[in-house]
Specification:
CATH architecture of the largest domain: 3-Layer(aba) Sandwich
Strand content: 15-25%
Shape: globular
Order of helices and strands: EHEHHEHEHHEHEEHEHEHEHEHEHHH
Structural class: alpha/beta
Helix content: 40-55%
Length: about 350
């Protein structure tokens, strides 16, 4: 009988009551891997629940102490710790290695902000890499941004297989929404750009906006009577599939995006994407084939996005169908089931090497 491999998922971004979709790509991986019979998974994460200033100041010390009490003093040993978002979560994994199980193997998936926000890296950031047994980057360009070359694999966060289930139907250029915007409503995701686009949009347009965060700008957009907005603060994956299928386009306006899961979700549903150039969009979009890439320049991005939206809205049905079919084809490699299959192989190889040490 094959022994179970005990794996601990560790992340500082997890769901909460007010932000149920926070870190959902990590939760998706966890749920998918948890279903495999030879793995025994646990998940320890820091929620993004809105709290008082006092609570925010102490949330990481409390996060650390709870980790120590729950795992370092546990009778059960973890074989592998899979860290999602490298820093400062790696410190907890190293503490576990020193004080509970020296033979534990540490896997790290770098998602983007754990590199973008730590450039140049501190001495502590660099020193902690000595304890990493396996590096995973969500895109090739993100890997190249790391402060040193490392032996690694490139695996996307993984698109929930539910986004592929309705493939085979033909998307029509006449949809309920002309375009959809999906993402946390903050500056990095480009909500100021979205506001500028919609306030100045020159003709009738129907827009769906999906995401929690700073949604006050939606009221300001109403000054443009040509724009019709439907807003959803949170949707389940199945509900999101419906929105993608009802949308002619996804518009992505991010300043920084290591992979861009919503891009691959939309394309898996056959919805072409117009996106600013980021590491993630450039890895997924072939300009003019499955979508369109726009220069990530504040001086021109809004004008260029509007032109691209008009271009797609005016496409002949056959040309739009080609865009849609290429989008579906290019998204196949990002299936969650395929990604977790590769991660499972990594776990087994590391566990075997630990046994043979």
């Amino acid at each position: 009988m094959q022994k179970l491999i005990r794996v601990l998922f560790l992340s500082n971004m997890g769901p909460s009551i007010s932000m149920p979709n926070s870190g959902r790509f990590v939760m998706n991986q966890y749920e998918s891997l948890k279903a495999q019979p030879d793995l025994l998974l646990d998940y320890y994460y820091l929620t993004q629940e809105k709290t008082s200033l006092f609570a925010r100041l102490f949330r990481y010390p409390v996060f650390f102490m709870r980790f120590v009490m729950r795992y370092v003093f546990s009778a059960q040993k973890q074989h592998i710790i899979h860290v999602h978002f490298y820093f400062p979560n790696i410190l907890l994994a190293i503490a576990y290695k020193f004080f509970r199980n020296w033979h534990v193997k540490i896997v790290v998936t770098f998602h983007g902000s754990d590199i973008y926000l730590y450039t140049p890296p501190s001495y502590l950031y660099k020193m902690c890499t000595r304890f990493v047994d396996k590096y995973i980057f969500v895109s090739e360009k993100l890997k190249k941004r790391f402060f040193k070359p490392v032996e690694s694999v490139v695996l996307s966060a993984g698109v929930n297989d539910v986004f592929y289930q309705q493939q085979g139907h033909t998307k029509c250029i006449k949809n309920k929404y002309d375009f959809v915007f999906v993402g946390h409503l903050d500056i990095n995701k480009g909500i100021e750009r979205l506001e500028e686009i919609l306030v100045s949009f020159p003709c009738q347009v129907r827009v769906a906006i999906v995401g929690a965060g700073e949604c006050d700008f939606i009221e300001r957009i109403k000054v443009n009577e040509r724009v019709s907005i439907t807003y959803f603060d949170s949707l389940t994956p199945t509900e999101l599939v419906t929105i993608y299928n009802e949308s002619q386009l996804l518009v992505n306006l991010s300043y920084n995006e290591s992979f861009g899961l919503v891009i691959s979700e939309a394309m898996a549903c056959g919805t072409p994407v117009i996106a600013t150039k980021t590491d993630g969009s450039c890895a997924q979009i072939i300009n003019g084939v499955n979508g369109f890439l726009i220069a990530n320049d504040d001086s021109s991005v809004c004008t260029d996005i509007i032109k691209s939206i008009h271009h797609v809205m005016d496409l002949p049905e056959s040309d739009y169908k080609d865009l849609s079919e290429h989008a579906v084809k290019s998204a196949q490699q990002y299936r969650l089931s395929s990604v977790t299959k590769e991660i499972s192989k990594i776990y087994k190889e590391l566990r075997l090497s630990a046994i043979n040490d």
